[in-house]
Amino acid sequence: MVLALKNASILQRDNLILSDVNLELKLGEFIYLIGETGSGKSSLLKTMYGDLPLTKGEGTVSGYDLKNLKDNDIPHLRRKLGIVFQDFQLLTDRNIYDNLLFVLKATGWKDKTKMDNKINEVLKKVGMGTKGHKMPFQISGGEQQRVAIARALLNDPDLILADEPTGNLDPATSEEIMILLTEICKNGKAILMATHDYALILKFPKNTLKIENGRVHETVQTHL
Prior knowledge:
Blueprint lengths: L2 E10 L2 E11 L4 E5 L6 H8 L7 E6 L2 E2 L8 H6 L1 E4 L11 H11 L5 H14 L15 H13 L5 E5 L7 H16 L3 E5 L3 H6 L3 E6 L2 E5 L5
Parallel strand pairs: 3-8, 3-9, 6-7, 7-8
Antiparallel strand pairs: 1-2, 1-4, 4-5, 9-10
Helix pairs in contact: 3-4, 4-5, 5-6
């Protein structure tokens, strides 16, 4: 199990956001996390990558015990995760290749040839193999999100956490990103994706968890 929460409470400072959260995610599994804006989707994801502490209940992510996570464990945990945000979060002062190089260097890679090969591999995987020399402002929003997904794949994570990855994209581009994420999942990665795009969920049906009234519920796809 790459991700497991048991009777977990999600807090932001002293505010209880979610209670009694139980969820499990296996390799090769894709789960949607849905709910109104402000319902706690981002807080739940932040707990999983160590941005918010888990103080009540149990939780493990990629072998790390969230309850006993120390500050110096957090960078190591994040290396085992791929995190994709709504607003891409690319560094605007350098080209696509150097954006990815920055992440590899920051996560301890040293060998120039290995770094070069890895960057070319992930860019090719997301259909951006010829765009490494471009600056972020020279490519479309959909292409920027593809680069963000490539960045998430750099350290071969078992789990990808995607927080509204299609939120800033038009419907056609959103579908392209979903096809890409589905393909990545088929290659053995686990994906948990927060979204409120119901049209996308109906077009790409998968197991779904719904946050409502401070609780996480499993929901049947056809009853959205």
